[in-house]
Amino acid sequence: MKKNKKDSKEQSKKKEVNYPNIAVLGGGSWATALVKILSENLDSLHWYMRSESAADHIRRYGNNPNYISAAELDPGKLQLTNDINSAVAACDWLILAIPSAFLVQELEKLQIPLKDKVLFSAVKGIVPESGQIVGEHLHEHFDIPYENIGVIAGPCHAEEVALERLSYLTLACADTDKAEIMSDCLQCDYINTAVSKDIIGTEYAAMLKNIYALAAGIAHGLGYGDNYQAVLMSNAIREMKRYVKRRYNIDRNINHSAYLGDLLVTGYSTFSRNRMFGNMIGKGYTVKSAMMEMNMVAEGYYATRSAYEIKKSFTKKVKTPIIDAVYGILYEKKNPRKEFAQLSEKMV
Amino acid sequence: MKKNKKDSKEQSKKKEVNYPNIAVLGGGSWATALVKILSENLDSLHWYMRSESAADHIRRYGNNPNYISAAELDPGKLQLTNDINSAVAACDWLILAIPSAFLVQELEKLQIPLKDKVLFSAVKGIVPESGQIVGEHLHEHFDIPYENIGVIAGPCHAEEVALERLSYLTLACADTDKAEIMSDCLQCDYINTAVSKDIIGTEYAAMLKNIYALAAGIAHGLGYGDNYQAVLMSNAIREMKRYVKRRYNIDRNINHSAYLGDLLVTGYSTFSRNRMFGNMIGKGYTVKSAMMEMNMVAEGYYATRSAYEIKKSFTKKVKTPIIDAVYGILYEKKNPRKEFAQLSEKMV
């Protein structure tokens, strides 16, 4: 992972940089945060969201009424549309910031081929329909070569971007020139960036961390405390390292921000939906009632099934006691208390 | 690091195990927690504390009036004394649980040689007078061979032991047989144990984590958020790994609970004294006024100076931007805002 720094000379030439034409697809909090960041550097960008009324509000008042509404946006720079095809047609580079649960149905609307576009995924999680991470899904279903697929990785709560609190993003792409370009687009006063080639590892880490945040929630719901949480996270990062290594074995330091940092910001966040969902499971809610109560599905729910099924396809086995425990609880109706008691004996 | 598990057969023989005679030295919260844990397995143990009135209260009511008073103790098992020599004379194994700032003055009271005793340190931090970790200090100043020196490492807040919330301890000793014995003494329903040979690494990690918790406090005081905290911790564990490797280069997984877990439980605790101290520094208090306000000195304050000075003695240099920044702020009156702005550019 390489820190990406413009020197001051480059900074002063900022206006001369030829930024690509970028469309952000999605109207949620992470999409809104990325639009805010990109607007710091770019004079113009396209932004697709389904809700015409939200788009209207942004045009009129300069903030998203539904997500991180404290984030001030410059409507003068934004080509807002609720037609995904017009945004995609206008741009060579696309940032996908659609929740993974809706990604397939949104991409089905496309009448324009994606294969010559550069796509960066800011989706955190697995595509439920294919059980794949977004990079793999795009590569396989849309014929996009890996050199044109990138990932925007945290650790980054969108809410803190709204407050312009210093945050770090990692841009991963097999073609590091493209990662550098996206890095230039995103780097600003409150965003530091790094580039990486590890698109597969970064995406899997982002997916797995949701399972570990869910596990942290279950533990909390069951009454385990901070000592246990620290042990759980320390076991989680070792499990993540083993898993990602089996999936894609390149030289990586799992303790870099894009992996460990992303795990920590989610696993220690009390606002995380995965943690909330897990907490309800730990407190005795059934999966169904927890989903109904939350009125949504936590990413970690899908991630657990996918991670579990994908690991069964590994030629060499990998020990994943945390994923196994969460899978047993969510998909095999096992008793959370018993599963975590057994898990606790496996941790060290 | 090896998980230490009694099998059920051994469990059932519990009463037959010949536990050593153990004295716990110290009357604070961690000492009290260890006494509670040891009382689960041992029928009798010696406990030295300075305060006669606290000892009296424990004898009468079965709880420590000053620290983690929710922890129920069994006075029938406890040989309480305020004479350190009588406790040390009665026992072959000693557990040091005296705050490092008072360790030297307490040990000066001893009229009994320590060199044939087995000493386990539960002290978290550096001995201010020698600038050494406790193991090194005991080895050098009391002629105790490293085979007789052990460490009891967390992650473990004493408060959660009082509540019997499942926690994990690592017992480190060059002589792993002794680590195993101490592990048998401590393992119980709410304590899982592991053994390790890495006494130096474990103690340095426990010392360094206080600096990183202090840094987390400064960052919070300066207004940085959760995204930054995750990046800081992810940089801290890499810095810790480099530092400890330079100090004592053996094969270790820095992501084990005794290192990363201990860093996380402290770095994410909002009750940590190091974090509180750092927070005040970040908010603009001078070092002196923060100390006066807190009415105590945070371990991380000493640890910062020692870690900084010790690393200067390394033959090969090691990059420690976080320690350097905290040192500059605490000991060279540098501006926290500027130091952290520079530090932020070095992190990735």
Walkthrough of the structure:
2 copies of one chain form a homodimer. Chain A has 348 residues and is an alpha/beta fold. The first copy, chain A, has 2 domains: 2-197, Rossmann fold; 201-346, N-(1-d-carboxylethyl)-l-norvaline Dehydrogenase, domain 2. Helices cover 51% and strands 13% of the residues of chain A. The first copy, chain A, is built from 16 helices and 11 strands. Chain A has helices spanning 8-12, 29-41, 52-61, 84-90, 100-107, 134-142, 158-162, 176-186, 199-222, 226-247, 257-267, 273-282, 287-294, 299-312, 321-331, 336-346, and strands at 2-4, 22-25, 45-48, 78-81, 93-96, 118-121, 126-127, 132-133, 149-153, 167-173, 191-196. The first copy, chain A, has a 9-stranded mixed sheet, sandwiched between helices. The longest helix of chain A has 24 residues, at 199-222. Chains A and B meet through α10 and α11 of A and α10 and α11 of B.
Furnish the topology, listing elements before pairings.
Two copies of one chain form a homodimer.
Chain A: E1 2-4, H1 8-12, E2 22-25, H2 29-41, E3 45-48, H3 52-61, E4 78-81, H4 84-90, E5 93-96, H5 100-107, E6 118-121, E7 126-127, E8 132-133, H6 134-142, E9 149-153, H7 158-162, E10 167-173, H8 176-186, E11 191-196, H9 199-222, H10 226-247, H11 257-267, H12 273-282, H13 287-294, H14 299-312, H15 321-331, H16 336-346
Parallel strand pairs in A: 2-3, 2-5, 3-4, 5-6, 6-9, 10-11
Antiparallel strand pairs in A: 1-11, 7-8, 9-10
Binding site for substrate (chains A, B): 124, 273-274
Domain Glycerol-3-phosphate dehydrogenase NAD-dependent N-terminal (chains A, B): 21-177
Active site (chains A, B): 209
